[in-house]
Structures are given as structure tokens and as C-alpha cells.
Amino acid sequence: MPIDITPERITAVEEIIRPHIRHTPVLHVDLDDFGMAGLPVALKLECLQHSGSFKARGAFTNLLTRPVPAAGVVAASGGNHGAAVAYAAMRLGVPATIFVPSVTSPAKADKIRSYGARLVIGGERYADALEASERFVAETDALAVHAYDQVETLLGQATLGREIEADLPETTTLLVAVGGGGLIGGIASWLRGRIKIVAVEPESAPTLNHALAADKPVDAPAGGIAADSLAPRRVGNLMFPIAQAFVGTSVLVADDDIRKAQQALWDTVRIVAEPGGAAAMAALLSGRYLPEKDERVVVLVCGSNTAAVGFE
Question: What is the pTM of this model?
């Protein structure tokens, strides 16, 4: 496993970024509120983090622990990472250029622009935007901030695992959505097997599921309703050995399950979640993950950048 992603470094990073990030709240619900057999569940609302997702943690870690050149920072993103890097750059007075694929939602593109970053459409999928951003780095020497396969990014996301364990010490099971794996890899680096971690992915973008089956990161389909947040071509090399060691279960959910979870979160508790942000809840509501009666379950609602809810 990456030797740089230690509990000591995670704690040090948390102290550095704490003034810049929110300690997000927990909402306690019961599954009977959602028409299911009763079971207490805690929702960790990281969807209320700055820029609308957990990504702000990794973004601030990169910008506060690495030297930033005059050319500023550059990131490739399906949307949330770009918004987070743009937000952190705005708050720290750093120029930012964000490459996104054409599948990025208008809500996320608008948010990136609202933070003053330069937005560039780079191809149809995240992998295309990443290649375009790498060409930009070669031309300008800007600081590249990777969405998931970078030590600083993993360290930043790991602070969320630390926060969850501190807030909810009785937790036995944590459901986490997976795209490139920076979030679950960071969280697992902190928890190190103390809590069962369930990885949740769309059936149309099973990157970690396929990697675990192959015993190495491999290319996987990259489509579906959450393609702008949970559909890289493959999981990160840094996170994969962490997942092998500390992720207990991999679950796939259908796009329809994710849509229903979005609707249920809004109808029942008035929480707005984008598709990727609702994926972990989809595993529970669809029955793809069935907890035992004695499990103390936390569901990570990790993103809210959607225009699905209109106010008229």
C-alpha cells in the first residue's frame, strides 16, 4: 500500500485544511421512513460540503501542501473535482483551469465558472478531459491536481473517514459510492478495517468491482446516470491495494435504483443528492446491500451538484 497515506499524515492534513472545510452534519433516520423494515441509519451529509461534494477536502490539501506555480492549477474532472479545485483556487487566490468532458452536467459546469475558473470542454468522457489536461500541463507547467490517483488527494479525502469515526464511533458498516476510488481509498486508509466498508458502484460503471475481480485495475464500462461523477475508465493505482486490504464488499446498483434513491432522499428528508451522491443510499433502498439487524449503518451522501430540484 502507499506508504505516504498514514494515520499520522491524515491527522496532520486535517489540521491544515480544517479552517477551509466544513464539518458536515449527520442526519439520523430509520428505514421505515422509506417504507422498509425498520433499521436505524445515519446519513453523513458530505453533500453539504463547500462546492457541493467531498472533493473540497482533496482540493484544499493539494493547494495547501504543494507549491503552486504562477500558471496556477489545472484539473480534469467529471464536474465535482473541478468545482472543488476551482473553489479552493478562488479562496486562495490561485488561477485555475478545469477540463471537463461533454457529459458534465450544466449545474456542475456553471458552478465551476461561478468560482472564476477557466472551463474547457475536453472530449466526451473523463479520460478525454484528463488527456487534454495533461497536454495543458506540458505546455504551461501548471500544477496538476488529480481527481483520485494522487497522494495528496487521498489524504484529503481520508479526513472524511476520520470525521465519520469521531462523530459516529458505534458505526459497524459504511456505504460509500466509488468512481476513481479517491474517496473510498482515503476513508479506508484511515479506518484500516475497524469498520466494514461497502463499495457501491453503478452497474454501468463497475470500475472497482472489475478491478477486484481481476486482481488489478482494469478498464471498465464508463456510462450511465452517474457518468459525470462515477465513471472513470479505471480505478486509481494508489487506491487499489488499499481497497484490496480494507474494502469488505462490492455492490452494483442499477441506474433506476439511483434515480429512486434520489427521489426518496428528497421526498422523505428533503436532501438533494446528485446521482453519484445517492448511489450508496441506492444500495440500501434497493436491497442490493442487506444489513444484519445488529449492524449500525452509515450511508455517505457525498454530492449534491444537480439541477434536478427546481424552485419556481
Answer: 0.93
